[in-house]
């Protein structure tokens, strides 16, 4: 048999649906986006008994078929569209043994769509501890389905589930209850008007309008116009439907499930008295954060240094081994460093997502959302924006990827747009060198001026993020209902397999998503810095040799002067000259201009570029620092890097969108060039104005 | 005066009477916030917002702006 069975995994959030997906598919999974929207689409292949293969889709978690977010709407769009290539032959509804009552609501809705359904009761290993016993035969009969008792933690029940999936044709498609009884007249009318359509499908189409607004459905479009009831009436009817379903579920579970409360233990409440406490809750959260950041800096510095030097030697090796020429240079100076610029982010991204997925898997993240919601709401953000904003101090790229669990598109978009203001680790080398040049070494109250300046820059970053969020909240006219209902799931030990797969998948999606664009721009920058028009560039060797002929320079020194001269007359050097009039009011010369232009690729390039321009063989910060201190302002005289131009530069880097990797990831996450371009324009303009004012006031 | 969820103090319990207000998202009902069910206020964030509830075994947090629309009877112990 060659046909694949289409299987859709559906379930409430926090039921371990993804664990079931991982158990079924292992590494045979891929993550993409649904076309046109940024909701993640997870699919994989599972081998069933007797050589049959199943194509499994892990649909976003939802509490019901009444969508209130983009994620949830994906579930309904798929289940309503029989022509979709992914339309399931069988739906597997995943439930959690402790929350069976709530989980069955979604199950009864899917039954009403007359799709074959298997019910997975997950976390069965907890039954004894929680004093729960189930009458599976009775439940199967009442719910008109087959049940698989599964424990992904103990790897139990997966084979039975596979067996059930391969025998899906034997499943009953009879609904287990009759929701239409809530208003007989209305539903009879509906049935008469559209006799060829499934009644519950009609009802979903009508109410989806009420819940969620526009959708594309040619097939049954006239249904949406079947408006014999007002919106308020429809909503009331939906409430009635929910109550009706719960009645049925309560009746079923009364016989099918017994819970011995004496043996049940609930640690959750005990933990939460402390972890969500007004004082202790925040203190513990702060300690966790500090630990995570310390760990990210400490743990990733070794692999990052290794990657840095490995790519440098690879580049060197390529130059030595391959015959010299344009292609070798492109490879050694463009492509290999470009790849290095992608790979070097991997340790930080991997570690950050390691921590985030552990916090999420354990259930702690919901508590953070609870603690921070009110504070963030003032700025048009949600409790769920906290994680990305804090992650941004390591790197904006994983931070922006971490916004995906914010349901409200508006709150998510604002979070994406303001995250690059937080002080990422790439700003650090720039800050450190400029601070050491222009801020005196004195102390006040035992704190060094230099350390205080650095701290102030971090605060400015957070402040800018929050204030711009507040402005965006006022300006952006995006309709998205923001209500706030967050489940506080039970605490669990994170499952290693789930954490590992998350880290792997996020890292992969960074390398292949943003990586392509970073590589492309690196090549362009290399080209602009390596070629120039006219004799000044092409005959640089002769010109420099002539100029320094009288001074007895060593070969190495001469080469440095040649490199510096070539850069000045390359396309990028000419660009630096061209923008000089624009940046002179900020206190910069053309060399700083080049550094700013080339550090558009990544902020830390600033130091390296200045190092090349000032003919320093390496970018060892002390040497470059001395060189920079010796630079003289060509017009005003005096040091080029003085207090005014230094502060101006610090502020410029605090606000400017100098990071093409971030732009690439914003493009990917918002699925449009509009937002990254807007971000680039506004942030750069703001940075320019602030730097201008700072320099003009301080000189 | 009508008693709402927002009147509960930490650790107090009540029985939900009415959730028909249009300001209550359907999602809350779907999570078990239905008339007749028992609700306990487990914890509150500063300024009593958001509120952390245990409704019939489901633990969830909602904002105060939603809680003021959920009518309840407070259980006096």
TrEMBL record, chain A:
Binding site residues for Mg(2+) 2: 23, 25-26
Binding site for GTP: 11-18, 36-40, 58-61, 122-125
Pfam hit, one: Gate
Location in the cell: Cell inner membrane; Cell membrane
Positions of the FeoB-type G domain: 4-171
Residues that span the membrane, as ranges: 279-297, 335-359, 379-401, 413-439, 451-472, 510-529, 592-616, 636-656, 677-698
Family: Belongs to the TRAFAC class TrmE-Era-EngA-EngB-Septin-like GTPase superfamily. FeoB GTPase (TC 9.A.8) family.
NCBIfam families named in the record: feoB
Annotated protein name in UniProt: Ferrous iron transport protein B
TrEMBL record, chain B:
Keyword Iron-sulfur: no
Keywords from the UniProt entry: Iron
Transmembrane portions of the chain: none
MF (Gene Ontology): transition metal ion binding
Cited InterPro entries: Fe-transptr_FeoA-like, FeoA, FeoA_core_dom, Transcriptional_repressor_C
Lineage top rank: taxon: Bacteria
SMART domains per record: FeoA
Chain ranges of the Ferrous iron transporter FeoA-like domain: 3-74
Name the record gives this protein: Iron transporter
Organism: Aquaticitalea lipolytica
Source species taxonomy: Bacteria, Pseudomonadati, Bacteroidota, Flavobacteriia, Flavobacteriales
């Amino acid at each position: 048999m060659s046909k694949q069975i289409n299987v859709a995994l559906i379930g409430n959030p926090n039921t371990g649906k993804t664990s079931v997906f991982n158990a079924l598919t292992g590494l045979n999974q891929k993550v993409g986006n649904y076309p046109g929207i940024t909701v993640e689409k997870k699919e994989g292949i599972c081998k069933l008994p007797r050589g049959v293969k199943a194509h499994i889709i892990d649909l976003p978690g939802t509490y019901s078929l009444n969508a209130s977010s983009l994620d949830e709407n994906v579930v309904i769009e798929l289940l309503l569209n029989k022509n979709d290539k992914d339309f399931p032959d069988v739906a597997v509804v995943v439930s959690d043994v402790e929350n069976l009552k709530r989980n069955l609501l979604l199950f009864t809705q899917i039954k009403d769509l007359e799709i074959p359904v298997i019910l997975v009761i997950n976390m069965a290993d907890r039954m004894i501890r929680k004093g729960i016993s189930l009458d599976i035969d009775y439940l199967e009969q009442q719910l008109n389905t087959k049940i698989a008792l599964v424990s992904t933690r103990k790897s139990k029940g997966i084979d039975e589930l596979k067996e059930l999936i391969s025998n899906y044709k034997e499943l009953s498609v009879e609904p287990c209850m009759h929701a239409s009884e809530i208003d007989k007249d209305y539903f009879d009318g509906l049935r008469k008007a559209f006799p060829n359509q499934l009644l519950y499908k009609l009802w979903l189409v009508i109410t989806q309008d009420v819940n969620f607004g526009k959708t594309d459905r040619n097939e049954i479009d006239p249904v949406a116009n079947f408006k014999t009831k007002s919106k308020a009436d429809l909503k009331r009817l939906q409430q009635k439907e929910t109550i009706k379903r719960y009645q049925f579920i309560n009746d079923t579970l009364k016989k099918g499930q017994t819970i011995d409360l004496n043996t049940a233990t609930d640690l959750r409440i005990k933990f939460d008295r402390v972890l969500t406490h007004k004082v202790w809750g925040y203190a513990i959260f702060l300690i966790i954060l500090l630990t995570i950041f310390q760990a990210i800096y400490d743990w990733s510095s070794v692999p990052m240094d290794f990657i840095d030097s490995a790519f440098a030697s690879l580049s060197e090796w390529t130059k030595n081994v391959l015959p010299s020429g344009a292609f070798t240079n492109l490879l050694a100076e463009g492509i290999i460093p470009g790849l290095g610029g992608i790979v070097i982010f991997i340790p930080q991204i991997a570690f950050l997502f390691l921590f985030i997925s552990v916090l999420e898997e354990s259930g702690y993240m919901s508590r953070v959302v609870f603690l921070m919601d009110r504070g963030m709401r003032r700025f048009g953000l949600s409790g769920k924006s906290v994680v990305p904003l804090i992650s941004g101090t390591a790197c904006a790229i994983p931070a922006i990827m971490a916004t995906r669990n914010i349901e409200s598109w508006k709150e998510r978009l604002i979070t994406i747009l303001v995250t690059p203001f937080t002080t990422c680790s790439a700003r650090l080398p720039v800050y450190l060198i400029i601070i050491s040049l222009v801020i005196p070494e004195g102390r006040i109250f035992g704190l060094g001026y230099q350390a205080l300046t650095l701290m102030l820059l971090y605060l400015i970053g957070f402040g800018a993020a929050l204030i711009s969020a507040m402005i965006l909240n006022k300006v952006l006219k995006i309709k998205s209902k923001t209500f706030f209902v967050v489940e506080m799931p039970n605490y669990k030990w994170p499952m290693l397999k789930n954490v590992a797969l998350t880290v792997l998948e996020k890292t992969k999606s960074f390398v292949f998503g943003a990586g392509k664009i970073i590589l492309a721009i690196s090549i362009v920058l290399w080209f602009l810095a390596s070629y120039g028009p006219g004799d000044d560039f092409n005959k640089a060797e002769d010109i420099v040799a002539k100029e320094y002929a009288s001074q007895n320079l060593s070969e190495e020194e001469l080469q440095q002067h040649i490199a510096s001269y070539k850069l000045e007359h390359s396309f990028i050097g000419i660009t630096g000259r061209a923008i000089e009039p624009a940046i002179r009011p900020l206190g910069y010369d053309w060399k700083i201009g080049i550094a700013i232009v080339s550090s558009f690729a990544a902020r830390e390039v600033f130091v390296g570029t200045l190092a090349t321009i000032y003919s320093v063989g390496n970018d060892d910060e002390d040497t470059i620092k001395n060189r920079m201190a010796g630079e003289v302002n060509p017009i005003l005289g005096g040091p080029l890097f003085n207090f005014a131009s230094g502060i101006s530069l610090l502020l410029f880097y605090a606000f400017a969108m100098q990071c093409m990797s971030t732009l690439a990831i914003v493009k990917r996450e918002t699925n449009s060039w509009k937002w990254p371009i807007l971000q680039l324009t506004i942030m750069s303009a703001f940075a320019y104005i602030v730097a201008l004012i700072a320099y003009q006031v301080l000189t | 005066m009508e008693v709402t969820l927002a009147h509960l103090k930490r650790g107090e319990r009540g029985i939900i009477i009415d959730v028909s207000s249009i300001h209550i998202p359907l999602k809350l009902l779907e999570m078990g916030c239905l008339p007749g069910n028992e609700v306990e206020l487990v914890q509150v964030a500063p300024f009593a917002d958001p509120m952390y509830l245990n409704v019939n075994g489901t633990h969830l947090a909602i904002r105060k702006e939603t809680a003021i629309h959920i009518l309840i009877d407070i259980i006096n112990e």
